[in-house]
Amino acid sequence: MAGFVDTTVKDIEERLRELKDEVGRLEAARTALTSGRSIKQPPRAPRSSSNGSVRRRPGRPRGRRGGNTRASQALDLVRAEPGITIPQLAVALKIQPNYLYRVMPSLEKDGSIKRDGAGWFPAGS
């Protein structure tokens, strides 16, 4: 049994040496490819302060932005181009159409627009 443990430990140590060598090669390759510039790291989770509250960067809003920016942009486009379809709206707004499939029915429910077939029209027309 002791021989098995010794052999396994040696195998693990050898593999760790191989991995360390590979890490060194990969880091050198990354440095060569990026010419020494740093690579943007993913954002870290906010840290908690001593009183348990989460610290945020100054000027950063809490939660949603509000203002229905995309909804108001879509509404403006519907007013400018009556009969516009969701795929056309998505191209004009440079966003994915799946978002508009949620936004447009809510605008219709609010009474801002109406749907006729695939096209969307201002409510007043």
Quick structural summary:
The protein is mainly alpha-helical and 125 residues long. The chain is 54% helix and 6% strand. The protein has two domains: 1-36; 69-122, Winged helix-like DNA-binding domain superfamily/Winged helix DNA-binding domain (Arc Repressor Mutant, subunit A, Orthogonal Bundle), CATH 1.10.10.
Describe what you observe in this structure.
The chain has 125 residues and is mainly alpha-helical. It is built from four helices and two strands; from the N terminus they run H-H-H-H-E-E. The protein has helices spanning 2-34, 69-80, 86-93, 97-110; strands spanning 113-116, 119-122. The protein has a two-stranded antiparallel ribbon with strand order 1-2. A hairpin with a 2-residue loop joins strand 1 (113-116) and strand 2. The model has no long low-confidence stretch (mean pLDDT 81).
- Tell me the major beta sheet: 2 strands, antiparallel
Strand order of the largest sheet: 1-2
Please state the average pLDDT score. Answer: 81
Low-confidence stretches: none
Compute the number of helices.
Answer: 4
List SSEs in N-to-C order.
Answer: HHHHEE
Helix content: 40-55%
Looking at the structure, the CATH topology of the largest domain is Arc Repressor Mutant, subunit A
How does the overall form come out from the CA principal axes?
elongated
